[in-house]
Write the C-alpha coordinates for this entry.
Amino acid sequence: MILSCAIIDDEPLAANLLQSYVKKTSNLVLRGTFNSAITDMGELRDNPVDVLFLDIQMPELNGLEFARLMPTDTKIIITTAFDQYAIEGYRANVFDYLLKTISYESFLDSINNVISHNSSFRKQALRLQDRFIYLKSEYKLVQINLDDILYIEGLKDYVKVYLEGNKKNVMSLMNMKKIDDYLPHPEFLRVHRSYIVHMNKVKLIDRARIVFGDDYIPITESYKDVVQKYLDDHTLM
Protein backbone atom coordinates (compact mmCIF):
# COMPACT_ATOMS: atom_id res chain seq x y z
CA MET A 1 0.00 0.00 0.00
CA ILE A 2 1.42 3.39 -1.06
CA LEU A 3 0.47 6.36 1.11
CA SER A 4 0.87 10.01 0.22
CA CYS A 5 2.08 12.22 3.05
CA ALA A 6 3.00 15.79 3.96
CA ILE A 7 4.97 17.41 6.79
CA ILE A 8 4.12 20.64 8.58
CA ASP A 9 6.79 21.71 11.05
CA ASP A 10 8.43 25.11 11.57
CA GLU A 11 11.57 23.51 13.02
CA PRO A 12 13.95 22.76 10.10
CA LEU A 13 15.84 20.02 11.97
CA ALA A 14 12.63 18.18 12.87
CA ALA A 15 11.24 18.55 9.34
CA ASN A 16 14.49 17.31 7.79
CA LEU A 17 14.51 14.27 10.09
CA LEU A 18 10.95 13.34 9.05
CA GLN A 19 11.86 13.86 5.39
CA SER A 20 14.76 11.42 5.76
CA TYR A 21 12.43 8.84 7.37
CA VAL A 22 9.86 9.22 4.57
CA LYS A 23 12.58 8.83 1.94
CA LYS A 24 13.68 5.45 3.28
CA THR A 25 10.14 4.13 3.78
CA SER A 26 9.12 2.44 0.54
CA ASN A 27 5.36 2.79 0.97
CA LEU A 28 5.42 6.58 1.58
CA VAL A 29 5.44 9.32 -1.04
CA LEU A 30 6.13 12.86 0.16
CA ARG A 31 3.85 15.47 -1.39
CA GLY A 32 5.33 18.45 0.40
CA THR A 33 7.03 19.92 3.47
CA PHE A 34 5.62 23.14 4.91
CA ASN A 35 6.77 25.43 7.72
CA SER A 36 3.38 26.99 8.45
CA ALA A 37 -0.09 25.60 8.95
CA ILE A 38 -1.95 28.78 8.03
CA THR A 39 -0.30 29.32 4.64
CA ASP A 40 -0.75 25.73 3.47
CA MET A 41 -4.26 25.08 4.77
CA GLY A 42 -5.93 25.50 1.39
CA GLU A 43 -3.46 23.27 -0.45
CA LEU A 44 -3.94 20.34 1.94
CA ARG A 45 -7.71 20.72 2.16
CA ASP A 46 -8.14 20.85 -1.62
CA ASN A 47 -5.55 18.11 -2.27
CA PRO A 48 -5.63 15.93 0.84
CA VAL A 49 -2.91 13.43 1.67
CA ASP A 50 -3.28 10.05 3.35
CA VAL A 51 -0.97 10.95 6.25
CA LEU A 52 -0.06 14.34 7.68
CA PHE A 53 2.85 14.74 10.11
CA LEU A 54 1.88 17.83 12.07
CA ASP A 55 3.71 19.82 14.74
CA ILE A 56 1.54 21.35 17.46
CA GLN A 57 3.31 24.52 18.55
CA MET A 58 3.54 26.77 15.51
CA PRO A 59 2.91 30.48 14.98
CA GLU A 60 -0.51 31.75 13.79
CA LEU A 61 -2.34 28.43 13.98
CA ASN A 62 -1.39 25.49 16.18
CA GLY A 63 -1.47 21.91 14.99
CA LEU A 64 -4.58 20.83 16.88
CA GLU A 65 -6.60 23.74 15.49
CA PHE A 66 -5.35 22.84 12.03
CA ALA A 67 -6.17 19.13 12.52
CA ARG A 68 -9.84 19.96 13.09
CA LEU A 69 -9.98 21.58 9.65
CA MET A 70 -8.52 18.63 7.75
CA PRO A 71 -10.58 16.02 5.84
CA THR A 72 -11.47 13.06 8.03
CA ASP A 73 -9.78 10.66 5.58
CA THR A 74 -6.37 12.19 6.38
CA LYS A 75 -4.60 10.41 9.23
CA ILE A 76 -3.09 13.10 11.46
CA ILE A 77 0.12 12.10 13.25
CA ILE A 78 1.14 14.75 15.74
CA THR A 79 4.88 15.34 16.11
CA THR A 80 5.65 17.19 19.32
CA ALA A 81 8.07 17.52 22.22
CA PHE A 82 5.14 17.66 24.65
CA ASP A 83 2.85 14.86 25.82
CA GLN A 84 0.03 16.83 27.46
CA TYR A 85 -2.19 17.11 24.41
CA ALA A 86 -3.70 13.63 24.36
CA ILE A 87 -7.30 14.60 25.26
CA GLU A 88 -7.35 17.58 22.90
CA GLY A 89 -5.88 15.39 20.18
CA TYR A 90 -8.60 12.80 20.68
CA ARG A 91 -11.22 15.51 20.16
CA ALA A 92 -9.44 16.64 17.00
CA ASN A 93 -9.44 13.09 15.58
CA VAL A 94 -5.67 12.74 15.79
CA PHE A 95 -4.59 9.25 14.75
CA ASP A 96 -1.25 9.02 16.59
CA TYR A 97 1.47 10.90 18.48
CA LEU A 98 5.21 10.88 17.96
CA LEU A 99 7.29 12.49 20.69
CA LYS A 100 10.41 14.34 19.58
CA THR A 101 13.18 13.43 19.12
CA ILE A 102 11.49 10.80 16.93
CA SER A 103 13.18 7.47 16.28
CA TYR A 104 12.74 5.69 12.97
CA GLU A 105 11.36 2.66 14.84
CA SER A 106 8.49 4.69 16.37
CA PHE A 107 7.91 6.44 13.03
CA LEU A 108 7.61 3.08 11.24
CA ASP A 109 5.32 1.68 13.95
CA SER A 110 2.96 4.61 13.42
CA ILE A 111 2.92 4.14 9.64
CA ASN A 112 2.27 0.41 10.04
CA ASN A 113 -0.68 1.27 12.30
CA VAL A 114 -2.08 3.52 9.57
CA ILE A 115 -1.72 0.73 7.00
CA SER A 116 -3.36 -1.79 9.32
CA HIS A 117 -6.23 0.60 10.06
CA ASN A 118 -6.81 1.37 6.38
CA SER A 119 -6.75 -2.34 5.49
CA SER A 120 -9.30 -3.15 8.20
CA PHE A 121 -11.52 -0.27 7.09
CA ARG A 122 -11.43 -1.41 3.47
CA LYS A 123 -12.20 -4.99 4.45
CA GLN A 124 -15.19 -3.88 6.49
CA ALA A 125 -16.38 -1.64 3.64
CA LEU A 126 -16.11 -4.63 1.29
CA ARG A 127 -18.10 -6.82 3.67
CA LEU A 128 -20.79 -4.17 3.88
CA GLN A 129 -20.90 -3.94 0.12
CA ASP A 130 -20.90 -7.67 -0.61
CA ARG A 131 -23.05 -8.59 2.42
CA PHE A 132 -21.47 -12.00 3.02
CA ILE A 133 -18.59 -13.67 4.85
CA TYR A 134 -16.94 -17.09 4.68
CA LEU A 135 -16.48 -19.26 7.77
CA LYS A 136 -14.53 -22.49 8.09
CA SER A 137 -16.77 -25.30 9.27
CA GLU A 138 -15.89 -29.01 9.25
CA TYR A 139 -13.02 -28.54 6.77
CA LYS A 140 -15.26 -26.55 4.44
CA LEU A 141 -15.67 -22.85 3.67
CA VAL A 142 -19.31 -21.87 4.11
CA GLN A 143 -20.65 -18.63 2.68
CA ILE A 144 -22.97 -16.83 5.09
CA ASN A 145 -25.09 -13.88 4.07
CA LEU A 146 -24.99 -11.16 6.71
CA ASP A 147 -28.72 -10.60 6.24
CA ASP A 148 -29.40 -14.22 7.24
CA ILE A 149 -27.68 -13.99 10.64
CA LEU A 150 -29.87 -13.65 13.72
CA TYR A 151 -27.22 -13.95 16.41
CA ILE A 152 -23.93 -15.62 17.27
CA GLU A 153 -23.15 -17.63 20.38
CA GLY A 154 -19.69 -18.23 21.82
CA LEU A 155 -19.07 -21.83 22.93
CA LYS A 156 -15.57 -22.12 24.40
CA ASP A 157 -13.29 -22.28 21.33
CA TYR A 158 -16.16 -22.21 18.85
CA VAL A 159 -18.80 -19.80 17.64
CA LYS A 160 -22.25 -20.89 16.54
CA VAL A 161 -24.00 -18.73 13.95
CA TYR A 162 -27.79 -18.89 14.15
CA LEU A 163 -29.52 -18.24 10.82
CA GLU A 164 -33.12 -17.29 10.20
CA GLY A 165 -35.65 -19.39 8.37
CA ASN A 166 -34.84 -23.04 7.78
CA LYS A 167 -31.16 -22.44 7.08
CA LYS A 168 -28.71 -24.70 8.92
CA ASN A 169 -26.78 -23.06 11.75
CA VAL A 170 -22.99 -22.97 11.33
CA MET A 171 -20.29 -23.92 13.85
CA SER A 172 -16.76 -22.57 13.38
CA LEU A 173 -13.52 -22.83 15.34
CA MET A 174 -13.06 -19.17 16.28
CA ASN A 175 -13.18 -16.93 19.32
CA MET A 176 -15.81 -14.27 19.89
CA LYS A 177 -13.41 -11.34 19.72
CA LYS A 178 -12.24 -12.26 16.22
CA ILE A 179 -15.72 -12.49 14.74
CA ASP A 180 -16.86 -9.42 16.68
CA ASP A 181 -13.98 -7.40 15.19
CA TYR A 182 -14.82 -8.76 11.73
CA LEU A 183 -18.53 -7.93 11.64
CA PRO A 184 -19.79 -4.41 10.81
CA HIS A 185 -20.84 -2.26 13.75
CA PRO A 186 -23.28 -1.15 15.02
CA GLU A 187 -25.35 -3.46 12.84
CA PHE A 188 -23.91 -6.32 14.91
CA LEU A 189 -23.53 -5.63 18.61
CA ARG A 190 -22.08 -7.68 21.42
CA VAL A 191 -24.71 -7.75 24.14
CA HIS A 192 -23.15 -10.43 26.36
CA ARG A 193 -19.71 -12.02 26.60
CA SER A 194 -21.22 -15.04 24.80
CA TYR A 195 -23.59 -13.35 22.34
CA ILE A 196 -23.40 -11.04 19.32
CA VAL A 197 -26.77 -9.92 17.96
CA HIS A 198 -27.76 -8.73 14.49
CA MET A 199 -29.63 -5.63 15.65
CA ASN A 200 -31.54 -5.27 12.35
CA LYS A 201 -33.29 -8.54 13.23
CA VAL A 202 -34.36 -7.57 16.75
CA LYS A 203 -38.15 -7.31 16.91
CA LEU A 204 -38.69 -7.52 20.66
CA ILE A 205 -36.75 -6.69 23.82
CA ASP A 206 -38.32 -7.82 27.06
CA ARG A 207 -36.79 -6.83 30.42
CA ALA A 208 -33.17 -6.62 29.24
CA ARG A 209 -33.56 -9.75 27.12
CA ILE A 210 -33.60 -9.91 23.32
CA VAL A 211 -36.28 -12.29 22.10
CA PHE A 212 -35.87 -14.50 19.04
CA GLY A 213 -38.85 -16.85 19.07
CA ASP A 214 -38.29 -19.20 22.02
CA ASP A 215 -34.72 -17.97 22.56
CA TYR A 216 -33.92 -15.24 25.09
CA ILE A 217 -30.55 -13.49 24.91
CA PRO A 218 -29.61 -11.52 28.04
CA ILE A 219 -28.13 -8.01 27.83
CA THR A 220 -25.52 -7.92 30.57
CA GLU A 221 -24.36 -4.88 32.53
CA SER A 222 -21.01 -4.71 30.70
CA TYR A 223 -22.74 -4.12 27.36
CA LYS A 224 -25.83 -2.29 28.55
CA ASP A 225 -24.64 1.24 27.65
CA VAL A 226 -23.68 0.28 24.09
CA VAL A 227 -27.03 -1.39 23.47
CA GLN A 228 -28.92 1.51 25.06
CA LYS A 229 -27.18 4.02 22.81
CA TYR A 230 -28.17 1.98 19.76
CA LEU A 231 -31.77 1.81 20.99
CA ASP A 232 -31.88 5.55 21.77
CA ASP A 233 -30.69 6.28 18.21
CA HIS A 234 -33.49 4.14 16.78
CA THR A 235 -36.38 4.88 19.16
CA LEU A 236 -39.19 7.31 18.34
CA MET A 237 -40.15 9.09 21.55
About this structure: The first helix runs from residue 12 to 23.
